[in-house]
Amino acid sequence: MATMTASVVTDRSRNRIRSRAASNLVERLQTYAFYVPIALVFVVLFAIPFGQSVYYSFTNLAGLSPEYHFVGLANYVRVFTDPSLLSGLVFTLFFAIATTVLITCLALPLAVILNRKFFGQRFVRAMYFFPAIPSIAILALVWQFILSPLASGALNTLLHDLFGIGPVPWLSDPTLAQISVVVVGVWSLTGWHAVLYLAYLQSIPGDYYEVARIDGASSSQQFRYITLPMLAPAITVSTLLLMTSGLNVYALPQNLTSGGPGFATYTITQNIVISGISEGQYGQASALGVVFMIAVGVVIVLQLMLSRRLQRS
Amino acid sequence: MSLRKTLGRSRPLRTLVAVATTGALLTALAACSGSAGSRSTSGDGKGVVTFMSWDALDTMKPLVTEFEKENPGITIQMSYVPPVDPYANARQKELQSGTAPDVFILGNREEEAGGGFVKDLSNIAAAKVVSDFNKQAESYKGKLYGISVVSWGGGFLVNKDLTSKAGVTTAPQSWGELLTDLKRIKATGVTPLIEAGDGISTTLMGLIGLAAHNDGTDFETDIANGKSTFAKDWTQPLATWSQLYTEGLASKNDAAVTGSQMTDEFNAGRAAMIATGSWAVAPARAALGAKANLDFWPIPGTTSGQNFWAGAAAPAYAINSKAKNPVGAEKWVDFLASAKGVEIYHKTTGSITTTNNYTPDLDPAMTNMYKDVVAGKIYCTWQTWPDANSSALDAEFLGKYQETMLGQSNAAGVTAALDQKWASLK
Predict the structure, then answer these.
(1) How far, CA to CA in Å, does B393 sit from each of A48, A264, B228, B233, B397?
(2) Which of B22, B197, B253 is closest, CB to CB, to A40?
(3) Is the Cβ of A40 closer than 8 Å to some Cβ of chain B?
(4) Is pTM beyond 0.80 here?
(5) If you average pLDDT over residues A55-67, what whole number do you get?
(6) Structural domain harbouring A255
(7) Which of A34, A49, A64 is the last residue of a domain?
(8) Nearest to B15 among A30, A37, A274 (CB)
(9) A253-257, A267-271, B8-12: range with lowest mean pLDDT
(10) Which domain holds residue B398?
(11) Which of B245, B402, B409 is best to mutate for the A interface (most A CBs within 10 A)?
(12) Shortest Cα–Cα distance, B2 to chain A (Å)
């Protein structure tokens, strides 16, 4: 009887275990099912096109003809010997580093100010965030009008009327054109990154500042020893986003200066788009895209390593 | 109860949501591939004719309305993509994917005609009215693949109300005379000349065209075939043109001036001359008034009495070799070249029509250029370049052209860069 009972109990336990295992399996499968859409997006919109780009980068696929031949590393050799590409690389790096540094230096104190209570705080926050909303292509066209190098340009007219300064070649002088592109880029994104820092700032417990005030710490000391360390994760995220978007910049210089004057504001992505789409040199553009992706990956990994070291220290 | 809790509790509901999301995503991705689908049409062309225009829809609408009135049962389904690069990109993608419309603007002839993407139009009714120059411009290996009913001409658009203050009232007969005139105009405090830096100026095109005309050869075909080089053929015209900047008669700021900024300056009466095309006359007339003393002058050569215009046959209408409604497409193209069609287009745009079935009523400012444009005494860079590498060369040319305006390069530097670029593309 006891054996029978034990046997029944064992059977019941086994059934319960089997049923729980099946239930867990079903639940896991249901959970994995939610990964399917994003996995599909990744495979269809990234992995497959990237694989095709790597494949075509070793061919001479171009124009409308579907025929192509394997050309080995010829496209890669051309990538590293094209003078316009090299000038594009220099400006791309300059733009990425300059905007990352400037936006970080401006957005941090702006976030601290926006975190304080004052009359019109919400309006001021919205005003600083606004440039991040319209398309950067439209903003670039507006700034092209403002920064026109002609005497009748909007900014030149203002400078002449107020200070008697002659027309400034904002977009026709190569150095000023590069600075103008960076300034417009900084102007368009500082508010967005300030709001990012603001979100992190609001999660810092107020007790830390209260204790610091009681201990006699000044505002700058509070910023240096409390705010900055607590914002380290936000700085990592912000600078990572800025470096990747800076290295991939296309719409702003294309619409503001079209890469000119000369090749002063020409970028790598412009080269990829022009050679790959306008010129139909798909093999060449694929090689450039692969090289660029690897280069950006290396820069991002180095940046993350540096950020994490700083965070730990 | 929150959605999260609802989903968390119900396994069937979670499964259903996951499957539905995946299905929706797959449907969306499948839709991205896009397919025009088949359109059944009758042998008389009745049905839909798809047309990708690079003129604004408002410009083409009167033509569509008139055509549909004359051809009941045929509907023109028109789309618009702005010229030049966005249109070329869209056309390329659609030809490669087999979704190109029945009628579109012809691109590179070697690629599209040579690749069998467009129909031979040599024997359609429209071919009989096209001018010889336009026919030659749109032919490939002796066959006509595009119907071009309009040409554009370019040179110096002149506000003679401003130039006359410096005593300049007639077109200069030589390049030296032009430079002298510009100095006199500058001395009156008026900006003598503006060129746009976002494209090769009509001045430079006219000089290159004149050099080729005097040489009796087609520079671009010779360079592409290896019989000549950019250094040999283009250095002298470039050196002549660059004098505008080395002598301070045109501003270095032009390197960053766009075409629309240039015409705005002219239309506001702040520039005496601009290097532009015939499309700028109508807006200038509208801005400066019917009584404004406007004129269009050709580009003078270094030898007195010689001049040339920039210009080209306007982009031609081509019929897709895989058109879903080829009969309707041919009727549409024939209409665009008919006297009625050409008249409507001319009245809407003010363009220089070149067919033999209609004489346009042009602005008096274009009287000088009309006969030369119809006769083909015009030149535009890359029009006769035989393959698709002209885009890459043009990008290189534009960058070096701007550097020359800034004084950072010169004629020899530009042509050396072009020869180097061509060598890398061959």
Answers:
(1) 31, 18, 16, 15, 6
(2) B22
(3) yes
(4) yes
(5) 84
(6) 74-312
(7) A49
(8) A30
(9) B8-12
(10) 154-310+381-425
(11) B402
(12) 18
